[in-house]
Every structure is written in C-alpha cells, then in structure tokens.
Amino acid sequence: EPEVTQTPSHQVTQMGQEVILRCVPISNHLYFYWYRQILGQKVEFLVSFYNNEISEKSEIFDDQFSVERPDGSNFTLKIRSTKLEDSAMYFCASRSGTGGSYEQYFGPGTRLTVT
Amino acid sequence: AQSVAQPEDQVNVAEGNPLTVKCTYSVSGNPYLFWYVQYPNRGLQFLLKYITGDNLVKGSYGFEAEFNKSQTSFHLKKPSALVSDSALYFCAVRDRSGNQFYFGTGTSLTVIP
After folding, report:
1. Which of A23, A31, A97, B113 has the highest CB neighbour number within 10 Å of its CB?
2. B102 close contact with A: CB closer than 8 A
3. Tens digits of per-residue pLDDT, A9-18?
4. CB contact at 8 A, B2 and B27
C-alpha cells in the first residue's frame, strides 16, 4: 500500500539555522499539507498546497516558513531561521482529490529539535 | 471557529469489552469528520470518515463511528477491544468550504489483557 514518507525522522538544529524537511507524498495525489504537533499539544495545520501554489495557510505559517514542490515527487517545508518554539513533530500529508476522496494520508513525521 | 474536543485524555478498557472514544465538534455548516490512529513512532493512520449519508460509518480494524448532528458528536466505537488497539486516537473535522483539518488533542486508549 502506498505511503507518505518523510526524511529525516529526527533533525536537531541550532537556533537561527535553516532547516528543510522533506516529504514524498503518495504518487498521483494532488493536494499536499504540512501540520505540526508541539509535544503534548494538538496537531495544528500549517499549510496546504495544490497546483503548485499555496491554497491555504494558518497564522503559524509566517514569513519564516516556505513550501516547495521542486520536482514531481518531493514536497518540502523550509524554516529559514529556526526558533526554540519551532521544536515539534512535523507531519506531511497528501490527498488524492479525485473520486470523492476527502481523507488525508499522513507520513510518520519529522521530529525537529531546536537548541 | 472550527474546533474538536476529545474530553478524555485516557481511556482504559478490558480486552473483549466494547470501547468508546468520544469526540464532539464545532463547525460552521455540515462537517466532514474523521478518525485517525497513531501508533508509537508512526504517522497518523486513517480509520474512517463521515461525509454524508448513513450516520453509522464503518472503518478499518472493526471500528465504527456514529455521526450525531443534534449532539455534534462523532464517537468512535468497537464492539470488542483487542490489546493491539492500544494507541493514540485523534478525531478531526473539516468544514465543506475549507481544506485544513482541525484535530482534537487525542485520546490514549489502553486495552488491558
């Protein structure tokens, strides 16, 4: 069964550094998402991406964040200058968008630790 | 504003007994509702969804959920719990005009042998 994959599983970085989190969505899916979960808190929406552009973003997704689909398979989240409060689990998700599908399929997550 | 509440952080149930994990929601208009399960070091796995139609929906691993519009609830149920059902369960809602999911805080289910 196809799965969303994410790399790395754990990233440690120093405050102020740039990080790129990588995701490979399920092939032939059309909608892509990033969510984050700070330890002990709920999963929060960051951004959705469709047709090579951001379709929706939350207040969390400020100018420090960007997303890109550089080729036909990868979907990346970049944080330009990390802050301590960016430490969280980051989940990538994708959705087919065809045939009446509404569910999103999530990857295993990347744990980002900012020191 | 859209929101989801899972009132129980922890649910314990004996193996073989029925289980219920509660979820209530607040959304403008008719919702799309989902349940996901998370095992340790794994991503969120889709269990089931309510989009329209029959209020009782069946999903993976013998789980089902009942949409109750008057109570704005979407409780997850299983007639007979297995030890392997022990995991973290998340309820999520999406309104029909938007794109993002709103998640509850999760309920940790422990099935006791």
Report:
1. A23
2. yes
3. 999 999 999 9
4. yes
